Amino acid sequence: MPKVISIHSYRGGTGKSNFTANLSTTVAAKGYRVGVVDTDVPSPGIHNLFCLEPEQMDKTLNNYLWGESGIEDAAYDVSANVGLTGNGKLYLVPSSVKADDIARILKNGYDVKLMNDGFRRLVKTLELDYLFIDTHPGLSKETFLSIAISHILILILRPDKQDYQGTAVTVDVARQLNVRKMLLAVNKAHSKLNLEALKQKVEETYSETVAGVFPLSEDIVQLASEGVFCVKYPEHPVSQEFAKVAQQLIEG
């Protein structure tokens, strides 16, 4: 049965899109058919990580939401872009980066039910094993939809007081929405921190499982969103941590 996985954070700047790109690619590299939808329509960006240029994006999620195309028409096979080999497939439905399109979405919003229907159609049409939803940070009715329909919700937080407080609110909301499974991921942890102790602290604080703890990495910063890190550096400790999280999704 296909799994829908939402990747969310209470605040921006947590590395959510980078996390989504690396985790979805890691799953696809294991031979699965994987889709990613960029629902961060006010500030889209994950297409950069998948080496998909704006001029190549003839159709986007926006066109689907405005009734101008099917959602499958906005799905791009980015498997070769990121260097995937083997049987796995990776598809991206990007959001438009055009200023007029973003302004229109911000002004008028969109039909939340239509988005939900689009997710289902995408899974069916592309015969996906996994669908990853890259959400907009914070809490909104659109975010609630993604959370509510997900089989797994992954909340990303940094070891930062603002993130801790915001994540507490998000966890409470997710529980009220009866999310089937929730995992936490700690990102950008400073090298001087004891990562195992940090993991235990976060698990005790929220009474939820921490799927992975990712150190702050200059190597990721140096890549500057030009490609998927775990494909370029598969033996790197960060890539190995993504492999562990991917395995938990597959087994769970």
UniProtKB/TrEMBL annotation:
Keywords from the UniProt entry: ATP-binding, Nucleotide-binding
Signal peptide interval: none
Record-linked SUPFAM superfamilies: P-loop containing nucleoside triphosphate hydrolases (SSF52540)
InterPro entries cross-referenced by the UniProt entry: DNA_Partitioning_ATPase, P-loop_NTPase, YlxH/NBP35
Domain of life: Bacteria
Protein name: MinD/ParA family protein
Pfam families per UniProt: ParA
UniProt xrefs under PANTHER family: P-LOOP CONTAINING NUCLEOSIDE TRIPHOSPHATE HYDROLASE, PARA FAMILY PROTEIN CT_582
